[in-house]
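Recap from last week: sequence in, structure out.
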Amino acid sequence: MKAMAQQSWAQGEPLRLIELPTPEPRAGELRVRVQAIGVNPVDWKMRARGPLRLAARLVGPPPPVVFGVDFAGIVDAIGAGVTGVRVGDAVVGGTDFSRKQRGSYADTVVIREDQVAVLPAGFDMLVAGALPVAGVTAYMCVIEVGRLRAGQRALILGASGGVGQLAVQFARHQGGSAVSVCSTRNLELVRSLGAEHVLDYTQGDPLAQARALAPFQVVVDCVGGHAGSACRGLLGPGGRHIMIAAETLAETMNVLVPPFKSRSVLGRPNAARLRAVVEAVVSGAVEVRIAETMPLLDAERALALSQAGRMTGKIVLVP
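Predicted structure tokens:
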């Protein structure tokens, strides 16, 4: 198998195309020939800094280091005990370094059955590849953890990003509404996703602007850096303030200290969540916007674009 990888965990080491032995699936596992790979901030964060990098180094597989989580492809082998997936099925899923699995920046992945969902016939592979982390994170923030119900409001900070766009749409899908925050250049994009109100953060403190529209059932901070106390002050009874993969000490303290209304969510794809996200796309309730598709060999460029934070859609790599 081929993969874009680092030979070690050395900071700044570039990704290179390498050959690795093609693994055989063990009991409970399946092997997928990858056709599309979504690029996420977690990919470059794991290379660069913070708790994700430390965790991956401590519990993940040994080098060479293959990054990436999202993938979609065709099952080409299954291990003993796999019953819900067959050879030839199109699937979408996410790798998991805590299970000693290499990442998805490769033409082949081996994962467990509970990490994938079978795709319906004709489902766009590029869209599927872009779904796992962003789709599951948005689903968890709005529905699973945020508990948004019909008639309730969500405040989405960073609504033009990969997770934010999907969170806006999941709020509408639940019968609720989204008050969304973005920059001037993305106002029309976010409105087109079905946001009830769109606030321009270049025109002043977005939390102050949102106060007139409170209370909210859930405040989803997709960008970080917003004061937890200010976000919690916009919540109604039983509301939740949710951060995406809290990293700083201040963000972590939001979760650990009273009034315990803040949560940190890292969207870990599993079969049930993936099926819910795929069903939302099939129904037309959720649309995934792909900003650019590029070959796997351009993984470094894709990561740089993702880290720059200027993309308003997903980047998808193709092996």
